[in-house]
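Progress against Task 2.4 (sequence-to-structure conversion) is shown through the following example record, which the project officer requested during the mid-term review.
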Amino acid sequence: MKTTTIARPDMAEFTRAVGAIVARGLSPRDTARTVAALLREGMPQVSALLTEEQRAGDPAGYVSHVLHARPEFSIAAVVWRPGQRTVIHDHVAWCAFGVLSGIEHETLYRLDGDRLAEIGRADNRPGEAGGFAPPGDIHMVRNTSAEVGVSLHVYGADLGRLGSSIRRVYDLPVVR
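C-alpha cells generated for the chain above:
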C-alpha cells in the first residue's frame, strides 16, 4: 500500500460534520456507525476528491490518499484497481467507510487461538457505507469489480502521524 497526503479545502463541510460527531464522545462503535450514516446521507463525487491521475490507482497495489488528518480523526480516499486487496488486518481505531465506485468485497474473521475463523463476507457497492470498531475488526478487503474502485474512509486516528490505520497484520491459517 502506498500513502499520499493531500490538502482538500473542498472537504471542509464534511470534515466539520465528522468533527461534530467525534466531539459528542460516543463509544467507538457508535461513532463509526454515526459517521457511516453521514456518509450514506451524501457521499462526495470521486472527481471532487482526487485528480484523474490519482483515480487511476497504482499497478503495484492499492493507494490511500490522506485528505485530512488531525489527532481525533482522519479522512482518506482509497483507490483499488481491479483485483487489488489488503492483507488480513485489524485497525488502531474505529473506522467508517463509503464506497464511491467499484465493489469492495470484505471477508471478516475472528481470532481462534493460533488461527483465523472466517465469520462472514459482504459485497459493498457504490453508495453503501458501514462502520466498525476494535475489537472484532479483523478483515481483508478486495476490489472484485472490473473498474477502479474508490472508497472514502474515516478513521478515529491521526494518519498524518501514524501513516496507516493498520494495527496488526494476520498471517495465520484460516478455517472456514
